[in-house]
Amino acid sequence: MRMNFKNYIDKTVETGVLISISGMIVSVVIQVFTRFFMDSAPPWTEETARMFFVFSVAFGAGLALRDHQYIQLEFFLNKFSLRTKNIIMLIIHGIIMLFGLLISIYAIDFIKLGSTETSPTLQIKMDYIFSSMLVLGSLIVYYSVGIISKKIKQQLQ
Fold it and tell me: Against a cut of 0.85, is the pTM above it?
């Protein structure tokens, strides 16, 4: 079965969430285990957990937007007709898309800033870690565009 572009992006983002959350859990478990049963915890575990957490948020934000998992004021929205509700949601997702676009634009300068720094323990170039902001902004834009196009199609029917 041939995978289309949307399915490819979805699977990649889902894999990113799975890997980053798993990595964070493993790092924290190692840290907790070594604190209780050994003399000291390895210094890299805290930094690793933090980096995995940042990427889990970056990947997870796009999936949350895709699956409509953000908090909505249903009480407020249910007071409107379906057409008005769709227009309000179009405006909201347009603002979210612009927010993601701004994050993406400013993330580029942030990544450049990180190219001169390394993480204290792991000695990883920080531009790799700072790229999570570009992932976050890009996924917000990508999934917002999908939602907006779906809402526009609904309005035209």
Answer: yes
| The dihedral formed by the CA atoms of 20, 25, 31 and 32, expressed in degrees to the nearest 10 | 160
Task: Calculate ∠ Cα 11-137-109, nearest 5°.
Answer: 130
For the chain, the DSSP string reads -PPPHHHHHHHHHHHHHHHHHHHHHHHHHHHHHHHHHSSS--THHHHHHHHHHHHHHHHHHHHHHHTT-S---HHHHTTS-HHHHHHHHHHHHHHHHHHHHHHHHHHHHHHHHHTT-B-TTT--BHHHHHHHHHHHHHHHHHHHHHHHHHHHHHHH-
**Residue 155 above 80 pLDDT?**
no
What is the total count of domains within the chain?
1
Q: Could you list the residue range(s) of the whole structural domain that residue 148 is in? A: 5-156
